[in-house]
């Protein structure tokens, strides 16, 4: 019997071993899957701010939820194999998934948009503004700081000590794991390019919704949507773009370099967070915080942003190009301005003007020092080379900035174009910013909201007083002076909008009727001459503003007055979600519609791509002043 049993053992043990190995593999995969599922649920809970639709996300017939779990499982197995110990991957994956999800949720509270990969390009700016943010919410800042320190300490402890207790993986297991997961993860990288068709992505029913980032993050989840946005810096040429196409775009040659005494000086002021707070529902402000602006208002700017992203509005106002033709969430100042580009600065410089940018903050902020060079400004006066300016709270006051503009203007010996971005209106609107608020707030609002609104409204009053001072100075000048003032976006007033009944959420809507969109995106616009007074314009996108500036200065230009003039006569508002005609008729989702683009908007897109990314076939014909400024003169 013993011999019989001995003879059978070799046949039994390999099977047993294989079964045990299979069970071990299944057990390891199962645990990794469960860990991935828990991480993903935590990420979505944090990023969404609630658990309301996480169940639908995980069980949807479209499979972004399960796809995310599968990818997270493979990533855990792959990193464990690289490190050689099970679960060690979590020390990297968990912080890198949870922290961005938290930042995204906080960003949505203030700016309505989720976190994009491009946001990390201006991380330094967030750090610089940290003292302002802490002053507004000190206890929240303390809690976040303590949590951050505790998390860092725990991660350090786990790396230095606890990881030794994690099960060590055999060389064979590591090789098998890497052999399986690396090709699959590499294949996923190909799914990230949303501009290219993917058979696997189509089978999984994972649909990149780059035209609607809120829906993109809701449908695909934070991790997949964030990954889809990684390649957004790559802007492909629109179909049909080329030298022959550009040559067919209507245009006529116009002279430049003819600046004379008949042309005015021009000052364009983008006023930080300037808005009419008397628009708030169920709230009364007294006295009127902006009587001068109201009397001289030309219309409104339809801002493509809300509560922030000033540089995107500035990009449109200076170039006459539109963010609608760029990937959603992109920041041209950070990503795309990498070579000389046409702007109001190159136009006026070609006409013999002195061109100067003035901003009372550090020159690196929003990459302005490099951008202004690319835009053709001769000088940039920033905090580093401006005299010390009086402040209101953390920021330079409008009055001090306008006095400095007047001082510099009085020293000019030739016509000038000044562009300036103010700072006083920047949030948060802490109750201690002003010694005494001159505006009384009445209405059914919590005291904290009244305090915030009173601070903001007082800042608008000081901006209004400063504009009056600037206008009185301009009226006394011998040379005609054009002054343009507009707000970059609505202020981040937080719960004031909701508690006053003005908006259903703390941030503006991205897709709604034009009436709602105007209510939540319009900012005041003043286009005024010291000789002829205000110009009536209506509501326009920032990209249309250069037309009115150049036209009021009595110049003609093949792009800024000819082509852009034709655009504004038909479509004064160009938003990525809807195109608004002069008669207020809208074309929702016009960039995604099946029918061809209006030929005018198609040409607009061609011109912008040509000058920003293409071969600049149109530079000599449509931007002669830019060509003259940027090419060496022999």
What does this structure look like?
- Helix content is 50%, strand content 10%.
- The chain is of the alpha/beta class.
- The chain is globular, with a radius of gyration of 29 Å.
- The termini are far apart.
Strand content: 5-15%
Q: Tell me about the biggest sheet?
A: 9 strands, mixed
Enumerate the spans where pLDDT stays under 50 for 5 or more consecutive residues. 1-12
Distance between the termini: 107 Å
Number of helices: 25
Return Rg in Å.
29 Å
What's the pLDDT, averaged over the residues? Answer: 85
Shape, principal axes of CA atoms: globular
Helical fraction: 40-55%
Number of strands: 16
Structural class of the helix and strand makeup? alpha/beta
What would you call the quaternary organization? single chain
Outline:
This protein has 25 helices and 16 strands.
Topology diagram in text:
Blueprint: H1 2-48, H2 54-59, H3 64-83, H4 90-111, H5 123-128, H6 130-136, H7 138-160, H8 171-191, H9 199-204, H10 213-228, H11 243-248, E1 265-271, E2 283-286, H12 291-296, E3 299-302, H13 310-319, H14 332-335, H15 344-350, E4 354-358, H16 368-374, E5 379-381, E6 391-392, E7 395-396, H17 398-410, E8 416-421, E9 440-443, H18 447-475, E10 481-487, H19 495-499, H20 514-521, E11 522-529, E12 533-534, E13 538-540, H21 545-552, H22 558-570, E14 573-574, E15 578-580, E16 586-588, H23 599-612, H24 619-622, H25 624-630
Parallel strand pairs: 1-8, 1-10, 3-13, 4-5, 4-8
Antiparallel strand pairs: 2-9, 3-11, 6-7, 10-11, 11-12, 14-15, 15-16
Helix pairs in contact: 1-3, 1-4, 1-10, 3-8, 6-7, 15-25, 17-18, 21-22
